Amino acid sequence: MQIGVDSFAAQFADEGGSVNASASKSVRQLVERIEFAEQVGLDVFGVGEHHRREFLDSAPALILAAAAARTKRIRLTSAVTVLSAADPVRVFESFATLDLLSQGRAEMVVGRGSFTEAFPLFGLQLKDYDSLFAEK
What is the pLDDT of residues 123-134, one digit of tens each? Predict the structure, then answer.
């Protein structure tokens, strides 16, 4: 059995509308949390993919690549790569490169995603939700 955690890199504003940390600082802290997860013995760390203002994980393979440079053992995975809104070849290439950088520690979890904001952002129609996932 493996034990791990996922992060969606959420950055929410407080009641006054301000965010406590800069986006850059929040992403760096996420990479530090991945390092810490390895230090305490977790087996895997996953980073989600969202295309919404309150999330900083629109490119999880890049975040995981930064973590790969600072870790040695922990497995690095997406916590759902939104395949139906992406080019499957580009997704494969990104995670294959991550796997090389991490010396075989990369994993990918693909799905449709629970938020549909990526569809109009990438010029896709929500009516094609199921067929796009099946196609890709």
Answer: 888 888 889 888
Provide the terminal-to-terminal Cα distance of the chain, rounded to the nearest Å.
30
In the block, residue with structure tokens 């990438």: 122
Q: Given 3.40.50.720, 3.20.20.30, 3.90.380.10, 3.40.50.2000, which CATH number is that of 22-135?
A: 3.20.20.30
Q: What is the dihedral of CA 35, 89, 116, 29, to 10 degrees?
A: 10
The answer for residues whose C-beta is within 8 angstroms of residue 131's C-beta and 6 or more apart is: none
Q: State the CB neighbour count (10 A cutoff) for residue 58.
A: 16
| CA separation for the pair 10, 127 (Å, rounded) | 28
Which tokens in the block code for residue 18?
């301000």
Query: Residue 41 is encoded by which pair of tokens?
Result: 């013995």
pTM value? 0.88
